[in-house]
Amino acid sequence: xxxxxxxxxxxxxxxxxxxxxxxxxxxxxxxxxxxxxxxxxxxxxxxxxxxxxxxxxxxxxxxxxxxxxxxxxxxxxxxxxxxxxxxxxxxxxxxxxxxxxxxxxxxxxxxxxxxxxxxxxxxxxxxxxxxxxxxxxxxxxxxxxxxxxxxxxxxxxxxxxxxxxxxxxxxxxxxxxxxxxxxxxxxxxxxxxxxxxxxxxxxxxxxxxxxxxxxxxxxxxxxxxxxxxxxxxxxxxxxxxxxxxxxxxxxxxxxxxxxxxxxxxxxxxxxxxxxxxxxxxxxxxxxxxxxxxxxxxxxxxxxxxxxxxxxxxxxxxxxxxxxxxxxxxxxxxxxxxxxxxxxxxxxxxxxxxxxxxxxxxxxxxxxxxxxxxxxxxxxxxxxxxxxxxxxxxxxxxxxxxxxxxxxxxxxxxxxxxxxxxxxxxxxxxxxxxxxxxxxxxxxxxxxxxxxxxxxxxxxxxxxxxxxxxxxxxxxxxxxxxxxxxxxxxxxxxxxxxxxxxxxxxxxxxxxxxxxxxxxxxxxxxxxxxxxxxxxxxxxxxxxxxxxxxxxxxxxxxxxxxxxxxxxxxxxxxxxxxxxxxxxxxxxxxxxxxxxxxxxxxxxxxxxxxxxxxxxxxxxxxxxxxxxxxxxxxxxxxxxxxxxxxxxxxxxxxxxxxxxxxxxxxxxxxxxxxxxxxxxxxx
Length: 682
Fold this sequence. Notes:
mainly beta, about 45% strand, globular
């Protein structure tokens, strides 16, 4: 591992001290907030509340949040400086011998807020587990709780981690092995071990010395992890389904047991053995010696792509005598992980170059001001109501979130949550884009289609998710959710989801009066999930579900996709409400994966399209529509029919090719080997 050269605290502080001067040269200044814990050349300067009549203040210090505190000062003034810049402090005001006020202070808490916890090996393990357990109990599939737990380098012994919705756990070391915990558990959240709604959580940059139970579906991320034991991807029984997940840049010494996972993407990783898995198992850039099964449990072929064409792993937060964001190097035609041997290579950006956002104080205005001043953005856990689009206009900007930081489109915002200009080197990661009352897009990359190339420094989007409906009892609308106009964009784990259950869902808008007499509106109305207009766009892990029209529309040239998962909309009322037109002919339904007629070159591996109906009889004629051009190469297309009345289903794999799948079942799942230059291999 090529370790960073630590920048001394004094150097960082000198840099930080220069920021107001730099901002003064720019018409847009970085937002500033009142601080009670400020870093100085001497360490951290604390300012705590003055208490009327206090005779003295007692200051206690611990190197970490839940470590042992010792008395370090008894004084008259409500200010104190300590050399441990990242320590934790308790200030007690004493009057007539009694403690009348207590205040807890630290730079980390003040900077990151209360929903992002930083732990150290000096912390009491039982208290750390209790802290994480409290976040677990507060979470729920559509709750507003957000939480991240980061661990400084060290061995945490028997620490057992258990996480679920909107929770992130991560190590702050330069290598995964720098932070060691005993186990990691994500149990199934529905009854009978059903993990199909296990969404929105992440683990990264840690070593687990035991086993991992990772019952996962969409919008989950297991990155840069080292596992000494085995890894289980479902609850372990025949009915404990999962709806697909994502492992990247990781190494599992033992067996990965996928059991009845419907689909899974494993990218640039290593493992000792692999068992199970069902419809669409896709392996990209696997490390040498990692055994890939030939088929899943139902006899469908697995999918292998030997090398990852273009890759930059997701940036991650580290602590080394100060905070940095590590940005892994760009790699081409890559196999294996980024943190072993010759693949090591990172750029380290001091956290002082970032604006650290907190949902309890930031707005679109403060975030845009920071971007205009040239700052990167680091989003701490929370829900941010975005009243106007965030504008990323500087090449190389990093926008990184943790704890499933959620950017929610405010009702007054009728355009988008974020615009990324046609610029190279932007890195987005760890964000959930949540729809509001009405918007054209949630994220747009590039204002319009141009000939500008970013091949030397592509735009990367890692663990970026989109949600329309489900979370709130309200009506939502988005026309085209994710629009990619720029060239040379790389997506790495997208879930673009029009909600199919919970609050505010419905094919059309509707109103009713609830039992308390309140008028309730429903409906999450859309057109498309993903529209790609740019050339040379690459996506590893594209999951797009339930939109009213085409789930994915690909207009750009030289697109590349490894692993695609999609379900039809559940609640189509009748066939006449779901009809498309292609080349002057009317067809039942809208193809899930639509490659525009004029496209000459496009490659995709592992395309899974699944049919579900909750009511009416309707049919999807084509799972995929694609031109028969010589450069169109589609490999391993899988169909599945999970539910629906008799007569419903998917008629064909690609265009009019290949007999599909209908209720009543003759077969529930089937596969086409390839569609290349218009030629079909079944």
